[in-house]
């Protein structure tokens, strides 16, 4: 088991919902059908850095991971 990088909760690195940190090279999308996407190639795992799906979902939504829910 490992800890979430953001909130410190215990996560299973092998679980489907667990994110792992990677390092790579990004190239901005150039096709008009890509709509501003990008490609990341030559991905390298960053050892022992994991995050839970809850924290990643909050970050993707632009919410600070330490912010409590409004409901």
What attributes does this structure have?
11% helix, single chain, 71 residues, two-stranded antiparallel sheet, mainly beta
Structure notes:
There is one protein chain. This protein is mainly beta and 71 residues long. The chain contains one helix and four strands, in the order E-E-E-E-H. The chain has one domain (2-60). It has one helix at 53-60; strands at residues 2-3, 10-11, 19-28, 38-51. The strands form two sheets. The chain has a two-stranded antiparallel ribbon with strand order 1-2.
Assign the structural class, choosing from mainly alpha, mainly beta, alpha/beta, alpha+beta, or little secondary structure. Answer: mainly beta
Please summarize the sheet with the most strands. Answer: 2 strands, antiparallel
Shape descriptor reads flat
Strand order of the largest sheet: 1-2
Round the Cα radius of gyration to an integer and report it: 15 Å
Mean pLDDT, all residues:
88
Q: Using DSSP, what is the number of strands?
A: 4
Helix content: 10-25%
- What low-confidence regions span 5 or more consecutive residues with pLDDT below 50? none
Listing every helix as H and every strand as E from the N terminus to the C terminus, the arrangement reads EEEEH
Work out the strand percent.
Answer: 35-45%
- Distance between termini? 30 Å
Q: How many helical stretches?
A: 1
Domains (count): 1
């Amino acid at each position: 088991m490992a800890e979430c990088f953001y909130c410190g909760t215990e996560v299973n690195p092998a679980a489907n919902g667990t994110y792992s940190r990677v390092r790579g090279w990004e190239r901005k999308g150039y096709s008009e059908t890509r709509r501003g996407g990008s490609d990341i190639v030559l991905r390298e795992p960053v050892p022992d850095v994991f995050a839970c799906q809850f924290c990643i979902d909050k970050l993707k939504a632009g919410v600070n991971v330490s912010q409590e829910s409004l409901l």
